Amino acid sequence: MIAVIQRVSESSVKINGKIKGEIGKGLLVLLGIEEADGEEDIDWLSRKIVNMRIFNDENGVMNESLLNVDGDILLISQFTLHASTKKGNRPSYIKAAKPDVAVPLYEKFIAAIESELDKKVQTGEFGADMKVSLVNDGPVTIIVDTRDRK
């Protein structure tokens, strides 16, 4: 799994012109799932995201987690994070999981994040044409790949 984590002061996702999910202070998480991902990836990444200390403390130092600042998460599925650009100019998405694998893992990831955060997570809709808006706070953008945890 690959996650692009952006610290935001606000973020929203629209589908067909209607807001599907929105948050204030928190994290916009773009999540890419590949065929080889499983429960261990979900457990590790959900804990990592919720506990990552990327919010400012009273001294302006990134030392607080999402839990400390009572922030929210907007989670968006994004298969293009697994694009291979080695050959030619058209990216290949062969590593991205097909919906029959990705959807159950995405739903389990939502449940894991909600359990870690102890609140509901805002989401987009898997496979939909989504319009994502954000105000990146900092800016702070971090990329985490579960393959790098070992």
Automatic annotation (TrEMBL):
The keyword Transferase does not apply. It comes from the Bacteria. The keyword Hydrolase applies. It is found in: Cytoplasm. One of its GO terms (cellular component) is cytoplasm. Its main location: cytoplasm. One of its GO terms (molecular function) is Gly-tRNA(Ala) deacylase activity. It holds the Pfam family Tyr_Deacylase. It catalyses: glycyl-tRNA(Ala) + H2O = tRNA(Ala) + glycine + H(+); a D-aminoacyl-tRNA + H2O = a tRNA + a D-alpha-amino acid + H(+). Its EC number is 3.1.1.96, 3.1.1.-. Keywords: Cytoplasm, Hydrolase, RNA-binding, tRNA-binding. GO terms for biological process: D-amino acid catabolic process. An aminoacyl-tRNA editing enzyme that deacylates mischarged D-aminoacyl-tRNAs. Also deacylates mischarged glycyl-tRNA(Ala), protecting cells against glycine mischarging by AlaRS. Acts via tRNA-based rather than protein-based catalysis; rejects L-amino acids rather than detecting D-amino acids in the active site. By recycling D-aminoacyl-tRNA to D-amino acids and free tRNA molecules, this enzyme counteracts the toxicity associated with the formation of D-aminoacyl-tRNA entities in vivo and helps enforce protein L-homochirality. A Gly-cisPro motif from one monomer fits into the active site of the other monomer to allow specific chiral rejection of L-amino acids. Homodimer. Belongs to the DTD family. This is D-aminoacyl-tRNA deacylase. The lineage of its organism: Bacteria, Pseudomonadati, Bacteroidota, Cytophagia, Cytophagales.
